[in-house]
Amino acid sequence: MVPAINADWSIVAERIFSPDAIFWRALATTVTIAVVAQVAEADELAALRSTTVSGATVDGDHASVRADQMTGVPTAYRRDVSLVRVDGHWFIDTPG
3-25: per-residue pLDDT in tens? Predict the structure, then answer.
């Protein structure tokens, strides 16, 4: 027997049929992460997992980190990064 799935189906339908900017940004970020995970070498992924940041410019729910403020980022991925805070968690902000 298949267990019942409890969900607010109106919210699920709204997210599927009327996605907002946050949804599209999250989707773009997810796709970017998936692509990097497929093309990056194991040592590059390990380096990205151990990246540290020495500073950032924060303005409310948006932040920017310069490439020179990051340590442990492989050269191929070293660039300035914009971040956005959603529900208390920081995500890479992709152009969209």
Answer: 677 777 787 777 777 767 777 77
Question: Is residue 50 in some structural domain?
Answer: yes
What pairs with residue 85 in β-bridges? 90
Residue 90: CB atoms within 10 Å = 15
Residue 4 within a domain:
no
Domain membership of residue 32 (yes or no) is: yes
Question: What CA–CA distance (Å, rounded) separates 19 from 83?
Answer: 20
Structure letter (DSSP) for residue 5: -
Q: Identify the domain containing residue 63 by its residue range.
A: 9-92
Half-sphere exposure of 45 (CA within 13 A, CB side): 10
pTM of the prediction?
0.51
Give, for 38, the enclosing helix (H) or strand (E).
helix 21-39
How many folded domains does the chain comprise? 1
